[in-house]
Amino acid sequence: MKSNKSSNNIYILALFLFVIVSDQITKVLAVNNLSYGEELPVTSNFNLFLIFNTGAAFSMMSDGFIWQKIILIFFPVLVVLFFFYTTYFSEQKQPYFKLGICLIAGGAFGNLIDRILYGYVIDFIDLYVSNYHWPTFNIADSSITIGACIIIYHEIKSTFASEVVKDG
Fold first, then answer.
1. Catalytic residue flag (residue 126)
2. pLDDT more than 90, % of the chain
3. Whole-number Å distance between alpha carbons of 17 and 36
4. CB proximity list for 91: less than 8 A, separation 6 or greater
5. CB neighbours of 106 closer than 8 A, spacing ≥ 6?
6. Annotated active-site residue in 63, 123, 126, 167
7. Which is more confident, 81 or 90?
8. Over the stretch 84-111, which tens digit does the pLDDT of each residue have?
9. Which residue(s) pair with 125 in the sheet?
């Protein structure tokens, strides 16, 4: 049983590293092939659009106060530490939780690398419908969102399942 847990942890760690590497590679490609603010249409609802985000998700907290910059570095470090604790030391049994935390931590670490190296996060994915654009994002942001959705979905599902058992 111990070896099964170890092999699962290796897969989780590999996914964590894959998220970080794919995020950084796509950001390098965007910076090397797009000019700042340049819009490159890919499909009718998808552009590549290079921007530098000094704030958090969707440019929140981008007005530059020092405490905001500290939070934007400190919080991802806590997320990554929580990921390693959950993966290697916790008795957390639900694999979906580890998967979700892994995706969130990989994305947080990918954006943390940008913030430390450049003082901003490189965003380049622009999705839209008609004239309504979703805020520009990157692979790390996608990973964070998918990880959070996995955790929320399974928590809601298990809550409803336990309610059905109690009522049944």
1. no
2. 58
3. 27
4. none
5. 15, 16, 17, 18, 19, 20, 23, 140, 143, 147
6. 123
7. 81
8. 888 777 776 678 888 999 999 999 999 9
9. 48, 137
Helix axes 139-167, 2-33, angle to 10 degrees: 140
114 is catalytic: no
CA 160 centroid distance within chain: 27
Between the CA of residue 102 and those of 21, 29, 113, what are the distances in Å?
14, 24, 16
Which amino acid makes up residue 152? I
Q: Which two tokens stand for residue 28?
A: 């390098």
User: What gap in Å lies between CA 104 and CA 147, rounded to an integer?
Assistant: 5
What burial class does residue 62 get, using C-beta atoms within 10 Å of its C-beta: 0-12 exposed, 13-18 middle, 19+ buried? middle
Torsion from C-alpha of 75, 80, 81, 87, nearest 10 degrees: 150
Nearest to 105 by CA among 130, 127, 125, 85: 85
Q: Which of 23, 114, 126, 141 is catalytic?
A: 141
CB atoms within 10 A of CB 16: 23
Task: Return the DSSP state at 136.
Answer: P
pLDDT in tens, 27-55: 999 999 999 999 999 999 999 999 999 87
